[in-house]
Each structure stands twice: as structure tokens, then as C-alpha cells.
């Protein structure tokens, strides 16, 4: 089936291009070019500026989080990313393992994070060979880390460098070398090594650790930070008993244990012991000791533990977000961006008429296609975010290669509906009861889910925004719920007899109906051509249309052969795929696309300037009201709001009278700055509309705007 094969090619192209999109979308590009100020800036300092051959020197990554921001320990816990280091060192110089200070904990909605909220330093020892010559010693390192608040996370990185001086030994004795006294403070924050080995055991979903600690040692609010991931449930409370010269920690296990583990036992506000433990038998003996309110055992005032409260909060958020996703998906069926694809499903239902078995089979197959693709897109979105890319919902339409593949597919479907050529899975007559009907419904659902992603309707924004803070498994449920909502009308038709009985019976009128449904497909193709031109410019668009014309001629040739009873399916399919691949490969490069001239937003009815957080901050410091809106050319809801409410003379006059500054964030192409700003406001995509009254917190406006909505802001 050509439709199934071409649709599969679309999703294969999406998956294949995803790694290529990562670097382009990463906010690290902006910060390396000095375009974005870091939220957890790092500075590389050395304990001594002068070093000698055969010795070691300690370097410190001094991290200074801004207020409300934090960094992460080497094992970040349930969420987060530890630091990474890519060294560039002179020959013979080696870097040791990074050493971290004792971390703190942050529990949000049942998700445990191991963090640093204040200034902290990560230490690394450099070893110099005996053969190194006196002179300058340049050191550089590319380091990456994650900066977060309680609401948003931003992957950050920087390239740090320092030049030391290798000096000779004076008179057979070490030269006097000045040391940085701050390193005494940095070392005091590190955990002290535990001299004796510890023992751990994983059994019956429980993790137990026995640590040799003198009974005379004062211990306050003990907590064990494990370095290895996948062993314990981080958010579960830790019970601690004291049995003479041993501390025994018990918590919930997550998976199979290793033969050896390591970690840090925190025994005071800023004190910890680093330890290694080997597998053995551990009994929970001794007397329980207090773990303090921050240990995960404190109550919320109603008798529930913090872990129970976090689990309840996560479940509540998941339930609310899932409901919003289902309702939002249902309303997507009314959006113009999805209607052309729904015409394919309408044809299928018209063919089936009132046949209960056929309608139910096709509805379930359609639902499976919708849900699987919605979940797959959500999973890919989460994977790209985890890799450091700043992406949001509908990220695939920020890549012109995906748009071209989608354009070719929509054009092919339009020609098929118009009768230029036939596909086995949309033939009429007796074939509708065969398996091709279910397969066609599945791929129609898959295509509907893919095309629906640029749309963001009511209830969807909050639901998709929740995927930013929910665990990955819960986030995938939200994406699947969106698919269920999108497929819900067809499920109701299939399983509610009163609705199904109203379906028209198949007849000769179907052929005309099918040809009429080609019109919305061609309108969709026109919209995609416009969008592609906006992204790659007129020169690139002309080249793309040449390949699209080749694809259309191939389909015409296929249809001509079918009219003569000739089989040209294999040749035409191969040629069609070659034309699509050629169109993808010959698209303009990133430099050409970035250099294209964008339309002048200042010439619009409501003039605006490009959004930046620096501009927003300056306008607010000047006590000017600000209207900031975030849009994209592929967002139908955005364009509808601009035409109906934003770019209207009434709105422009009201804003001018109130001296309102207008900022526009264009998210048509990937922009990490806008992606991060959207996440700060709990949004996974556009549109987003904000109004800043002087001296007040921003107001998030509805996703469907009217002129009165905007003019009343300044009335």
C-alpha cells in the first residue's frame, strides 16, 4: 500500500532526523556565542598558579547559582543531569575524577532531586608528568550541566580555560608557591572518606546498608546518597537505626543490586562520609534514630508522610493533565489543521455505512494509529529534552525536511482522492471488508496525529505543560491521552448504536464525495508550501517544488498505467521515494536558512519587536505595559488569533493609546531562548500570550483571543 509505505517513510524520516535536530535546538549554541546568560555560571580556578613537574594541582569549578536556581550532584536522583567534562590537556597531563561536596535534597511532587542551592565547588586534580618542561601550561575544558528552579530546567554548558605556569625547583627544594586559601573551604565541603568498608543488601524490595560509625560520633538527620542509579527508590523515606558502632539504613529498592556500590552518608548539615559497600547480609537491628523533617518522613499535617503526599500530588497532577489532554484532543477535531486528514476517515465511515463490524474494526485501528503516534512523538520529545535539546510540542515542524516529506505525502493523498491513481486500501466495493481497510484506518490515524501536533487548542496547553514536570512514564500517558481524545468521535460512532444508525448508506454518491475531499488536501498542501517558503526562502522553495513536481509526474504515470491495466507499482514507488529523498537532501543548509530575510514585524498593523528577556526586563524597568505573544507559522491557532484579534486596527489603537510595548516571539524555527521561556510558564508549545501591567505579575491570556480580550487589558 503506497499510503502506508509513504506514511511510514515520513515517520522514519522524523526519527532519522531527530538526532540532527538536537544540536541545532540546544540552548548551548546560544550560550557559547554569548547570547544567553547562564543561570548557574561556572568559573575555573586553580589552587596554585605555579606548578612543578611530577606534582598535582587542584582545580575547582566554582558554581554560583542565581537566586531560586540550583545545580545537581553527580547522581541527580529521580530527575536532572550531573556535570560532564571534556578536557583539552597538554601531553602527559591527566585529569582525575571530579569530587563533589555533600549535596542537599529537593522533593517536588514525589520526585527526589540531589542538588546544590547555594554556591558550591567541584574539585578535580591534575597530575603533571616528570618530563614536562617549564613554561605556560594551558588548560581548557568543555563542561555541561543542568540548571533548574522548582518549575523549569535549562541545559547549560561553557568552555572554561586557565593557563598555569610550570616552574623549576629551586636549589633542589620546592619553590615557594602561593596557594588559594579558598580551597580550604572547598575541601571542607567534601565528604570525608570512611576508613572501614560498609555492607549492603537488596532483598524483598528493600535496600539495607550497614555503615561502621563510632557510637561516640554525633549524627544529625542522617541520609544516604547513593552514586549508582537504579538501585533505590530515591523518593522513598529512609529509616535509620543505630546498633552500637553501626548505622543501618533501610529504604525501598528499585532494581537489582550490583556487587558493590558507593555513596555519601550525610551526618550533619554540611558533613558527610564517602563510603564503598560490598554485598552481604544486613539485618535491621538497633534503635531507630530521628531523621529530621527533611528526610522524607515528615507529615503534611494530616498524618500522611511526605512521600505519600508527593505521590498524591503527582497522581492529582496526572489525573488533571490527562483529563485536559483528552478534552483537548477531542477539540482538535474542530481545528482546520486536522480537518483535511479527517476527510479520509469520513470516506472510510461512509463506505462502511451502518456495518457494525466494519465500523468498529476501523475505529479501533484508527485509534491505535492515533495513540501510538501521539505517544511516539511524545517519547521522542522527552528523549530530545533529556539529551539537552530545548524543544517543545510540534518540534518536528520546525525542521523544513519534515515539512517537505509531509507536503509530498499530502499531495499524493490529494491526487489519490481526486482519482489520478488508485491505492489498494481505499478501493471501493468488496475490498472494504478485507484487512486493507483496517490498515488504511491505522495509517489514517497515524497521519492525523502527526498533522494535529501544530495545533494547540483549549485545555491542551496546561496538559502538555504538565509533561515538563511529570516523570517520563506519566508524561507518556498524557501524550497517549491526547491521542485518545483525537480518536474519541470515531470511537463513539463505532460503539454507540444510536449514532452509528445515522450514518448514510454507501452508494454512487461516494465517488463524488471522495473527489470533494481532495479539496481540503490540496488546501493543506498550499499551506505547507507557504510554510516551507517561510522557512527556506523563495530559492529553496523553487528547488523543493521541482522535486514535488517530479513526485506528481510519477503518480500521474502510475495512474496512466492503472487505466491501461499495467502494473507500475514497484517502479513508481521506488521513483517516488527517490524524489522525496532528493527533495530532502537538496534543501538549503542551516546557514542559508538562517540568513533569509524575514518579514518586517514592525510594518504590521500592530507593530512589534523581536522578543528577548533582556528587552522585556528593560521595558518593565521603564514601567511600560508589555504584551508578549509567541507564535509560529505552522500554528493555525496562532495565525487565527493574529488575524481575528492581534493584527486588528482596534487593538493597535488601544495599545498605542496606552503606550503598550509589543514583543513577538517567532518559534517557526527552533529558538532555545523561546523554548526555555515557554517552559518557565508551563507551556510545551505555542501559542502563549502574556500581558505585563506595570509593577504587576504577568497575566496569561486565553489561547483563543478576541479584540475585546486585548482592548479590555488597557481599558
Characterization of this structure:
Helix 1 packs parallel to helix 8. It is built from 20 helices and 25 strands. It is 42% helix and 21% strand. Strand 24 and strand 25 form a beta hairpin. The chain is an alpha+beta fold and 715 residues long. The strands form five sheets. Strands 12, 13, 14, 15, 16, 17, 18, 19 and 20 form a nine-stranded mixed β-sheet that branches. The N terminus is likely disordered.
Secondary-structure map:
Blueprint: H1 2-25, H2 28-32, E1 42-46, E2 50-51, E3 56-63, E4 71-77, E5 84-88, E6 94-95, E7 104-108, E8 111-116, E9 120-127, E10 135-148, E11 153-166, H3 182-188, E12 192-193, E13 198-203, E14 206-212, E15 223-226, E16 239-243, E17 246-252, E18 260-268, E19 271-279, E20 287-288, H4 306-332, H5 339-352, H6 356-386, H7 400-418, H8 435-452, H9 460-466, H10 472-495, H11 497-500, H12 509-516, H13 518-563, H14 569-585, H15 590-594, E21 609-610, H16 613-621, E22 626-631, H17 636-646, H18 649-657, E23 661-666, H19 672-680, E24 688-692, E25 699-700, H20 707-711
Parallel strand pairs: 2-11, 12-19, 13-19, 21-23, 22-23
Antiparallel strand pairs: 1-3, 3-9, 4-8, 5-10, 6-9, 7-8, 10-11, 13-14, 14-17, 15-18, 16-17, 16-20, 18-19, 22-24, 24-25
